[in-house]
TrEMBL record:
CDD domains: GATase1_CPSase (cd01744). One of its GO terms (molecular function) is carbamoyl-phosphate synthase (glutamine-hydrolyzing) activity. Gene3D superfamilies: 3.40.50.880, Carbamoyl-phosphate synthase small subunit, N-terminal domain. One of its GO terms (biological process) is glutamine metabolic process. This is Carbamoyl phosphate synthase arginine-specific small chain. SMART domains: CPSase_sm_chain. It comes from Thelephora terrestris. Heterodimer composed of 2 chains; the small (or glutamine) chain promotes the hydrolysis of glutamine to ammonia, which is used by the large (or ammonia) chain to synthesize carbamoyl phosphate. Keywords: Amino-acid biosynthesis, Arginine biosynthesis, ATP-binding, Glutamine amidotransferase, Ligase, Nucleotide-binding. The keyword Nucleotide-binding applies. Pfam families: CPSase_sm_chain, GATase. It catalyses: L-glutamine + H2O = L-glutamate + NH4(+); hydrogencarbonate + L-glutamine + 2 ATP + H2O = carbamoyl phosphate + L-glutamate + 2 ADP + phosphate + 2 H(+). PROSITE patterns: GATASE_TYPE_1. Belongs to the CarA family.
Length: 430
């Protein structure tokens, strides 16, 4: 027995050494990450061998790289993962519908949305029952470059100190050239990225649903629509700048989705929403960009944070109770944002802060005050989070229940048309 253990101990390092000596380098192409602030990091290229510009941000999520990379809110960004090894469970097919309430994809959108990815150690081998390819081949197919073999601790420390920084991934021969001049860096925050990712034409999901919910698509993650459909709603997805006021009486509720970039690019939607809030008294729920649009419509300001909040481990404290949310409790949430609403005293009349971030005290949500008679909630985090945690997933049940209850109260002849859906808190189609 003892000799068995000893021989295994001796064999393992010997075997590893053998592999390291003889296996060809799977990522032979050199690559560099340059920052506008002057620093450069040299590593190896994986994914598409292509040079790009972007805004460099870091995420502290340990898992769910596939959901993060397909989140349209990462549009134009070079995503640095603080978790050292990324790719070890591969990438699932995004095509196969896996349940009857499918919304047309498995991940958060049709393709990879971030401009590039930076990892300390990209997994060459992967293993998962639903995996069909490696992160390398997935990025290659989608034309997205990755850099591996860099010190992501040093990069993250830098980004925490100096804030989100414009960057360039230079691949192959480009990586041997001098870094770009400061004026050559592309700044995605200057563009209306929402307009690039929002649906161009309206579409309907689950038409037989008993409550009709409109979604203003600022770059919606698919799990938002899935979370509504799972609760029995018919979901009509509209372009971000659609004139909802012209059709609002056809709906029982409105959801404003997440989306990339500076919320000030969404002023047409803010002005539309201001009118909606003045004249329409049905439930409105905003998530991330949606929360910022609600806040701007309510009269709050939005500001750019130093390095934002990105990860699946952001603690928020509830300041008010509403539905499944209890004041005084801390919920762990998924987040991806660079902007936040200002915490001001007093808050605009008819509004109150809903959540606050336990790390940096930024506003994590607002709600209409009880005396306003409105039913409006906004959260800066992602209750639908396909990659978890699911601490706040029941906010979707609260929202759909509120829409259903209001509809039933307006249609007494129909009575309570359908029982409230008590669904398992499932985070994604899997
Ligand atoms: N995920 C989001 O909706 C992000 C909202 C906005 N683009 C921000 O960065 O703050």
């Amino acid at each position: 027995m003892l000799s068995n253990i000893l021989s295994r101990r001796l064999l393992v390092p010997h075997f590893s050494r053998g592999l390291a000596t003889h296996a060809p380098n799977p990522f032979p192409i050199p690559a560099a990450l340059h920052f506008k602030s002057g620093q450069s990091f040299c590593g190896r290229s994986f994914g598409a061998p292509k040079s790009i510009y972007g805004e460099t941000v870091f995420s502290t999520s340990i898992t769910s790289y596939t959901e993060s990379m397909t989140d349209p809110s990462y549009r134009g960004q070079i995503l640095v993962f603080t978790t050292p090894m990324i790719g070890n469970y591969g990438v699932p097919s995004n095509e196969a519908p896996t349940d009857s309430q499918d919304v047309g994809m498995v991940l958060e959108s049709r393709g990879i949305q971030c401009a590039g990815v930076i990892v300390a150690d990209v997994a060459e081998k992967f293993s998962h029952h639903s995996a069909v390819e490696s992160i390398h081949s997935w990025c290659e197919r989608h034309g997205v470059p990755g850099v591996t073999g860099v010190d992501t601790r040093a990069i993250t420390t830098l980004l925490r100190d100096q804030g989100t920084t414009l960057g360039r991934i230079a691949v192959g021969a480009d990586s041997t050239l001098p870094p770009p001049k400061p004026e050559e860096y592309w700044d995605p925050s200057k563009e209306n990225l929402v307009d690039q990712v929002s649906t161009k034409t309206p579409y309907l999901l689950n038409p037989e649903g008993d409550v009709k919910i409109a979604v203003l698509d600022f770059g919606a993650k698919a799990n938002m629509m899935r979370s509504l459909v799972r609760r029995g709603a018919a979901v009509h997805v509209l372009p971000w700048n659609y004139d909802f006021n012209a059709i609002r009486d056809n709906y029982d509720g409105l959801l404003l989705s997440n989306g990339p970039g500076d919320p000030l690019h969404c002023m047409p939607a803010v002005l539309n929403l201001r009118k909606t809030l003045e004249q329409w008294n049905k439930p409105v729920f905003g998530i991330c960009m949606g929360n910022q649009v609600i806040g701007l419509a309510a009269g709050l300001d939005a500001y750019r944070m130093t390095f934002g909040n990105r990860g699946h481990n952001q603690p928020v404290l509830a300041l008010a109770s509403s539905g499944s949310i209890k004041a005084g409790r801390v919920y762990v949430t998924s987040q991806n944002h660079q902007y936040a609403l200002t915490l001001q005293d007093p808050f605009p009349v008819g509004w109150e802060p809903f959540f606050i971030n336990c790390n940096d005290s930024s506003v994590e949500g607002i709600k209409s005050a009880a005396e306003s008679g409105k039913r409006v909630w906004g959260v800066q985090f992602h209750p639908e989070s396909a990659g978890g945690p699911l601490d706040t997933i029941e906010m979707f049940t609260d929202f759909v229940d509120e829409c259903r209850a209001l509809k039933a109260s307006h249609e007494p002849h129909l009575g309570n048309v359908k029982e409230t859906y008590l669904v398992e808190p499932v985070g994604r189609v899997a």
